[in-house]
Amino acid sequence: MARLPMIAELLRVDVAMLFVLWLKQYRLRNDSVPSALLETRERRLVTENEAEVIRAVRHATKNADPAFSASALGEIARAVTR
Q: Do 54 and 15 fall within a single domain?
């Protein structure tokens, strides 16, 4: 596990995604890893680039949990595909 950041850099993949893959493989060999932990981590997985968007939203809303309208989500989608 200590080598995951280096491996991720060499493969040019996000370290968080690589960690989830590692955790899945580890769980196959060691059932002491709770499946709920793995499922929670997988559902909440974001890449470093996606995390930048989340940080921007949190900064703009002063860490509120805003509900987005369909049109606002559409604007966000258009902004990230330009």
A: no
